[in-house]
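User: What would this chain look like folded?
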Amino acid sequence: MITETHKRDMEFHAWLNPYRITTSGTDLDKLYKLNPARLNPSWVLSYEDALFYNPENPEVIKYIATTVFEIVKKYYVDGIHFDDYFYPYNYPLPKGENREGNVANKRREAVNDMMRLVNKVIKSTRECVQFGVSPFGVWKNKSSDSRGSDTKNLESYYDVYADTLTWIEEGIIDYVAPQIYWSIDNKTSAYETSVNWWSDIVRGSDVRLYIGQNIGNIDIAKEIEKQININRDYCEVEGSIFFSMIDIEEDTGNVVEQLNKVYSCKVNIANK
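Assistant: Here's the prediction, encoded as structure tokens.
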């Protein structure tokens, strides 16, 4: 896959969910006998019929960093890309704790420590390899923090303990691709409102901004040309990441004609 990608003058970024073990099922014995989660049950969190590595466990942080090292060392990838899943969404706090309290802050800092270590591993192994992340499209709502976006949605800072602003401010990621998976007229997270906020956040930093766009949603697919033209009004936006390829292949919402028009090229989906 890497060879074929490079033949076409494209980059290959390895996509990972660093903490996810299963999407359903909590029986460790059903995992392969050498699966690290099965070998190290003390590393594991169980929540809503799924298993996750515990982000606060130092051995988990080392394991994730070692996995990234293996990929970067063995394969000529151009980037390591983390998805939006960190802690499970809405993972509960202990009784008596609140979302700005000691436990919540420790969770966020554990994730920050993992991100810092992964950055060091990548840059010390092959400096040219990029480190990127595609967080949920809202860091905090303005109602929670004056620095937040004018949105009324889940907040990755609180709901998955992902402090994207720290990663940008510390320069521990090379690019950010927020999942702005909403339509232009969305009532809780309007598309341009979100693009504008993220543009402001990366301005003056060395972190590049791409916009994650969900063409699997037919309402978004139908207006993707308009969304791309909005992106072009912001010089900080360097491009789009579309989810997913199957929706280009199936031409969801007439997306192929729109992409041909907006990019002034021919999208050929026959040559897979």
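The chain has two domains: 2-16+55-263, 20-54. If you want, I can go into more detail on any region.
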